[in-house]
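2024-03-11 09:14:02 INFO receiving multi-entity request
2024-03-11 09:14:02 INFO entity count = two
2024-03-11 09:14:03 INFO echoing inputs for audit
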Amino acid sequence: MSQRTLLLLSQDNAHYERLLKAAHLPHLRILRADSEAEAKAKIGEAHILMAEPARARPLLAQASKLVWLQSTYAGVDILLGPGERRDYQLTNVRGIFGPLMSEYVFGHLLALTRQIVHYREQQRQKVWQSRPYESLRGKTLLILGTGSIGQHIAQTGHHFGMQVLGVSRSGRERPGFTQVYQVPALNKVLPQADVIVSVLPSTRETRHLFNAERFSYCKPSAIFFNVGRGSAVDSTALLTALRTGKLGFAVLDVFEQEPLPADSPLWGQPNLTITPHNSAYSFPEDVAQIFIRNYIRFIDGQPMDGKIDFDKGY
Amino acid sequence: MSQRTLLLLSQDNAHYERLLKAAHLPHLRILRADSEAEAKAKIGEAHILMAEPARARPLLAQASKLVWLQSTYAGVDILLGPGERRDYQLTNVRGIFGPLMSEYVFGHLLALTRQIVHYREQQRQKVWQSRPYESLRGKTLLILGTGSIGQHIAQTGHHFGMQVLGVSRSGRERPGFTQVYQVPALNKVLPQADVIVSVLPSTRETRHLFNAERFSYCKPSAIFFNVGRGSAVDSTALLTALRTGKLGFAVLDVFEQEPLPADSPLWGQPNLTITPHNSAYSFPEDVAQIFIRNYIRFIDGQPMDGKIDFDKGY
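2024-03-11 09:21:47 INFO inference complete, emitting structure
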């Protein structure tokens, strides 16, 4: 087999280079592009890219030898727009974000139910006073998206004694879920949910799935998380729901526009928590492992993990 | 069988009365004492007390018919001091605190690792900026006390991919723990721990178990929780460890003196979180269920759940 050239296009290039060289992958030459100029100079040599989607996209037209792009992120939607190339294999990273997303969701959820910020303020004032709270046990958790991330969050909810419902395109049963519904049943399921978590990808079907009508079906005490993609939520409708008491609280890690513009009214909403799209992070050790496994399959002509269907969009 | 009189001595009397009357327990007359005066007037009639330990203690000398006291709390140490009565059956509530303690520990732990307070501050300033963080996965959790609470916390740690070590008097294997050590091995285990959780009861052996020497064995980055009893920690030594970087952070729900006095230097320590002894709460539904089960055993002459050994102290 002839040699293949891999070009690294990420903020963790040095780390990836070290991990991949240590793996002694056969027939693989590893190049790094740490700047835009370097990327432009080397892109024509690359058969394989290991890249952040936003760094790769403007270079694809020049990537004349490209056969495979391994995204270092889960979200690859910017590579799927109309007019984008589709004549290569695109794989994303899957299976490593579930534990991190669970940490994020349950960290923020328990910080709210256990009123951690309130007690911090009380401590500043040296006040010893307890406030009532409720356990997660017996509460209902609704998860939109029942893939590996949704399943991990479901299992964490189950561990904390929650009833876990899911919504997916197929409505297929999944481990960790008491019941999974199809998207058209969403309005019937929403009124039961104490906690709602969207891990949905960005597709035509998920765009503004959470609009004013959806929020009108939520419990006024419900806590809404978006850790999937910003496009699933109409943020104007969300803000209105939070302001008018149709929804209790929201925790958002993803937005329609990122970074969230400084003049967004979301920043100042008291019953809303904003984090800068970091609920899960692609730790280089995990991503490198995925690449190594996929490379072996690639040279053997086997199907790779995380292969994206350009039509479905995930 | 002759009738027995139960006297309720708690802040949730009305709630307990309703729940127990609805259970139609045979041969049981239920009285309430909502004030000190009422308690003094009725204590002589009571065969059974369902009580907060601190409310019951000053009345025990007058409780001439007492045969059984069901504590509504887990902690009964104030009923076990020298000179206290021992001629009755004392039971506490067990098994209901594990899930609540897990919520507290992991809520505070994830709030720290995911820097929730920091992002809240950033949101106020409309700043979109991510900071590195580490997953709980692969970290080592050390739990002091391997009873039902410790086991639940262990299982939660295991769910989040942590390695879970335990320390107990016996060192016996317990579900959820990778390995359990005896107390004399503590100094050898401490240097491995990223997170330390004490759920120890107050006994002679646990008094100031965490002193300056112990803290000198901790990782400088370690996070220390006390959700057991305040007496297990020498708070002066803890404060010194936090100030001199021998310990990274502490989260305390229990103290040697409660409420924590307003002049305690603990209040102002930045790498210390204080909560007012509410990591777990005796929800009346749960406690009533325990009483009902125990009452059936009591009238059948069977051993009751949560029976305290006056010599061991738990």
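2024-03-11 09:21:48 INFO post-check: The longest strand of chain A covers residues 4-9.
2024-03-11 09:21:48 INFO post-check: Residues 115 and 133 of chain A are 8 Å apart (CA to CA).
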